[in-house]
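Hello,

Our lab assistant flagged a job as stuck in the queue for most of the afternoon. It eventually completed. Since we weren't sure the result was trustworthy after the delay, we are filing this so someone can double-check. Below is the sequence as submitted and the structure that was eventually returned. Let us know if re-running is recommended.
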Amino acid sequence: RGSTILSLLILLDPKPVCLNNAGTVSIAPSLPGISSTMMLCDNPQDQTCEQDQATLCPAGYHLCSATEFNTLNDNWNVAIPAAKRPVGQIYCRKPRGAGHFTLGYVSYNSAIQLKLDEPLKCAYGSSRPQCTASYGCNDKFVSALCCSVNLACGNGVVNAPLEECDDGNTSDDD
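-- returned structure --
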C-alpha cells in the first residue's frame, strides 16, 4: 500500500528533485505508454561514494537496471563527459563482489551518448548486502542513473519491457 501511494505521488510530481546536494544533469524524454522516467543526478563536489549513488536519486527513484536504461533512453540526445560516467544498479559479480551497471565502458575516454543502448557491464566496483566487497570509496566522480518506480514492480510477474525479474516485492536488495 505504501509503495502504491508513493508511486501516485511520483506521478503527480512532474519535476523530481535529486537529493543530498546533487543536481539534475538531465532528464530523459518521456515515452508514450510507459509511466517510468529516468534522470541523471550528480553531486557537483564529487563527495558521494559510488556505492552510495542511490542516495542522490529523488524520492521514489532507484538506480536503473540495464533493462530499464535500454528501454527508457530512446531520444535522450545528451552526451555526458567520461569524467562524470553514469552508474546504475549494483549487480553481484561472480565469484564475489559487486559492480555498478556502468555506461560508456566500451569507449572509456569518449563522451557517453545517453541515447545509445548499453550492454550490461559492471565496471565500477561496489557492494550490496548479498555480495559485499571492500572496494572502498574511490570513484566519487560518477553520476547516478536514476529510474522512477515501475508501477508493476512487486506483482510477482515479469512485466516487459522494464523488468528483469519480479519476486513479488519491491526490494532491489534480494
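-- support follow-up --
The delay was a queue issue, not a problem with the job. The result is valid. The chain has a mean pLDDT of 82. The radius of gyration is 15 Å.
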